[in-house]
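Z., the sequence and structure:
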Amino acid sequence: MARKRELSCETRQSILVLRNEGYSMREIAKKLKISYNGVYYSLQRTAQTGSNQSRKRSGRPRCTTEQEDKYIRVSSLRNRRLTGPQLAASLNSTRKTPVSTSTVKRRLRDAGLQGRVAKKKPYLRLANKRKRLIWAKEHRHRTEEDWKKVLWTDKSKFEVFGSHRRTFVRRRTTEKMLEECLTPSVKHGGGNVMVWGCFGAGKVGDLFRVKGILNKEGYHSILQRHAIPCGQRLIGANFILQQDNDPKHTSKLCKNYLEKKQAAGILSVMEWPAQSPDLNPIELLWEQLDRMVRKKCPSSQSNLWEGLLEAWGEISPDYLNKLTAGMPKVCNAVIAAN
């Protein structure tokens, strides 16, 4: 037997109004296009309860106890990688009547435990964690203006076809393999473009295309021709240079060069904790640049490089200021996570 549709509060109110106006129950049923019994029981319930609201229902009894709900929650918290079927199997090993995986998932959702794809993050040794914590504590009190004095630098690789980001399309069930609903992919990304870039004080600096393998001599040239000129142009004298701990950056050639510039009062180099790309706001800038380039649908390496240059020039100062304004929150998050 088909499930009956429940009358809405508005329909019940209309029934009551029409009845008070003198309409018969059959006339009301015909006028509102509902059954005679629906009108009859609606008026009867209103007379008994004095309300148009549905009565409270006891609902279907829960098939798990409070202790079992706690067991599901605690088991999931102890091992975050346990799946719904695994938790259900573990619980059912102690029960006479098994519960379904759907029930276990509902209990997890009720406890606020949602299934999500795990974020990827570089592995941190204890020494690296300590360095990150020290860095966060030393920089937590810097103001937004202080962070604008930092020249954020990094390099990134962009692929011609595809992206590590997920692509969403709207399609019908039968349009799964339709060309406009597919993301083209080729081996090795169909070629890529490696770039070095920087930004500071709410403005982007140079975007330099790195061809071939970048060695210490190549990075030394980038410091001379791009990093230091950009820092002086965007920020001014004694700007703060941020760079990660790549072996090229810490080579004697580059280290001695930067020490001479520090002695001359041109810049100061920020001490950067190892394995900490998540602390660098330029990583978010690379993601934004990738989103902008994907809209242009590059078809070759040269086309991709032209798109990158064009998108780089379209980065708004408001977005860059938003990145640096979030640095105090980043420091506090590191401290809170210890």
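The chain has three domains: 9-49, 66-110, 126-337. The chain has 14 helices and five strands.

Let me know what you think.
H.
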